[in-house]
Specification:
The complex is a heterodimer of chains A (111) and B (112). With 111 residues, chain A is mainly β. Chain A has no helices and eleven strands. Chain A is globular. The termini of chain A are far apart. Chain B is mainly beta. Helix content of chain B is 0%, strand content 54%. The chains are: A mainly beta (111), B mainly beta (112). The A-B interface holds A 32, 34, 36, 41-46, 49, 88, 92, 94, 96-104 and B 4, 6, 33, 35, 42-43, 45, 48, 55-56, 90, 92, 97-106.
């Protein structure tokens, strides 16, 4: 079993839809949680970064962390075709200085 | 503010050759990490350097090596290239060790 599980998709939604992307993890020692967006032929770009359980909002993006369930989510409101990309979750623990990425979910927003 | 710069962007090598990839981190960032990205395996951690010292290493054979210079620039080297080494190699830098990375656009290595 992988430490971080993420459905690779692809996830296809119409423009304007609310998108929900999710990751689960098995190691409760993870402390920091991140979401990256990667466009084709580009490196991943840090979107959201959070430490505690709860919600963190940034524009159309909301990151949600539930440490008790070992579950994190990224919500995208009013999705746009420009949001079409691969979204990777990532988790870090200070013990062992360990950063682990999910496999990435391919998102396609249709106009 | 300049981002993470990786050179070259594309590279074609033959089996058995060796290759050196370069990464210039964001100014002020002392942590530099390297990742291999393939469609089948996703992002796999190679190694991380902080203040010229290797702090962490992934599960890759000894053919993969790296170093960091005093100005935080980093290089990774792959010797005796194999077809399976074809991938996008990404460098990321951070002010902190381990998280908050900014990635470069990568070097696309093709081994033929």
């Amino acid at each position: 079993q992988k430490e971080v599980e993420q459905d690779p998709g692809p996830l296809s939604v119409p423009e304007g839809a609310i998108v929900s992307l999710n990751c689960t993890y098995s190691n409760s020692a993870f402390q920091y949680f991140m979401w990256y967006r990667q466009y084709s032929r580009k490196g991943p770009e840090l979107l959201m970064y959070t430490y505690s359980s709860g919600n963190k909002e940034d524009g159309r993006f909301t990151a949600q962390v539930d440490k008790s369930s070992k579950y994190i989510s990224l919500f995208i409101r009013d999705s746009q075709p420009s949001d079409s990309a691969t979204y990777l979750c990532a988790m870090y623990m200070e013990y062992g200085n360990k950063l682990v990425f999910g496999a990435g979910t391919i998102l396609r927003v249709k106009s | 503010k300049a981002g993470v710069t990786q050179t070259p962007r594309y590279l074609i090598k033959t089996r058995g050759q060796q290759v050196t990839l370069s990464c210039s981190p964001i100014s002020g960032h002392r942590s530099v990490s390297w990742y291999q990205q393939t469609p089948g395996q996703g992002l796999q951690f190679l190694f991380e350097y902080f203040s010229e010292t290797q702090r962490n290493k992934g599960n890759f054979p000894g053919r993969f090596s790296g170093r960091q210079f005093s100005n935080s620039r980093s290089e990774m080297n792959v010797s005796t290239l194999e077809l399976g080494d074809s991938a996008l190699y990404l460098c990321a830098s951070s002010f902190h060790l381990g998280y908050g990375y900014t990635f470069g656009s990568g070097t696309r290595l093709t081994v033929v």
